[in-house]
Design brief:
There is one protein chain. The chain has one domain: Alpha-Beta Plaits. Helix 1 packs across helix 2. About 25% of the residues lie in helices and about 40% in strands. The chain starts with a strand and ends in an 8-residue tail after the last strand. The chain is an alpha+beta fold and about 100 residues long. A four-stranded antiparallel beta sheet has the order 2-3-1-4, with helices on one face.
């Protein structure tokens, strides 16, 4: 079984997250895309919008808690309100 763990964080965190998480045990795949958000960030470089990074991690269900915790720590969400993280229910792996 697999899960998707996603994060919407400030753009500057995106590459930092990729480098820190990509070789973590249990991570199958990770992608980082950029976009703009109008509701999560105080720093808005484009008037009503701020740049953000959208991180998507596919991880093994048995390692999901460790991957989620690592992502939370790398994004520094314990001491900076700069984004959010979510996790899906288990996804059935097909071949």
């Amino acid at each position: 079984m697999l899960v998707e763990i996603g994060a919407l964080v400030e753009k500057a965190s995106g590459q930092q997250v990729l480098q820190a998480i990509k070789n973590l045990d249990g991570v199958i795949c990770i992608t980082v895309e950029t976009g703009r958000s109008s509701d999560l960030f105080d720093d808005r470089q484009f008037g009503d919008f701020g740049e953000s990074a959208i991180v998507s991690v596919i991880a093994e269900s048995k390692k999901k808690e460790e991957v989620f915790k690592s992502l939370f720590e790398v994004c520094e969400l314990d001491n900076k309100p700069q984004g959010l993280i979510f996790m899906t229910p288990d996804i059935i792996k097909t071949s």
